[in-house]
Amino acid sequence: FWSNAIMKHAFPYAVTGGFLGLPITPAEIVDKSAISTFAVAGIAWDGCVTNRPGARFGPNAIRQASHMLCGDDHPLFDVSPVKHTVDLGNLMLPNTSLEAMRAALAPQASRLITQHTMVWLGGDHSITLPLLRAYHAHYQQPLACIHFDAHCDTWESHFGEPSGHGTWVYEAITEGLVDPKTFIQIGIRSSGERAAREFVNDQGGRIFTARELRGKDGAGLQSVIDEVRQRMMEAGNPPLYLTFDIDAFDPAFAPGTGTPEVGGLTTAQAMTLLEAWHDLNWVGMDCVEVSPPYDHAELTSNAAATLIWTWLCGQIAAKK
Length: 320
What we know:
Layout: H1 2-8, E1 38-43, H2 58-66, E2 85-90, H3 98-112, E3 117-122, H4 128-139, E4 143-148, H5 168-174, E5 178-188, H6 194-197, H7 199-202, E6 206-209, H8 210-213, H9 222-234, E7 240-245, H10 267-276, E8 282-288, H11 299-319
């Protein structure tokens, strides 16, 4: 009895391996005749943080936290990602040069997005720009993007350097990688000059600030859900990318991040939005800025693992 039970539902603390306990299978040895629809890959880079480091440890912490989710079905979608997903491990990348990292990431990302719907585990937010470049080249059109964050990431320079984790939105829009009208920011609340704070609105996009969302429950979020869906449909339902900076959450829900900002989203708010948007034309996602050295009781990595699991389950349900 016990051996059968443990094989079916191993205790989370006893599980080893990758996301959801899946075996780590490097991309170069994945059986091309049995490629999974979805894949997870870590981008363990934090060379552009402006405050507390540690996001390089994020991918493995998210994997460990995901073991609590086991292989059981999502209570809303009634599916599990386990049979549909492969964990490719962490990509091999330089760790001292942003340009060298991006140059090494580009060909790997380009190859993987032709084979899987990818979930990228960051890493700091500077990884999103080269990923969007790869998706833009693959789809040959600007992407729509939903961006959860406390920070606007629209600065024209990164503390005197031309690029970093606070410039990628400005760069993505000015390079034409994304369609400004379908660029949505959710949870923005940090201080900053007006030109940066309102950049996305000024370009024709939409910013839902954390203040605008304060106190909204499931019913209160319906107007947000509807407005975003309408924007996507009016634009022809373009390829849509999700980038989720974990500091979109209030530090009460996710303290383990490089630049925490009080007054943020709740985990329940984010899950409500992701569940409601599960049937949009998603092509990939990343989750960034999880910094385990500053986490407490695995709150942050649990939040990250659960939102990724939620997104994957929604995708599987939508494809069914």
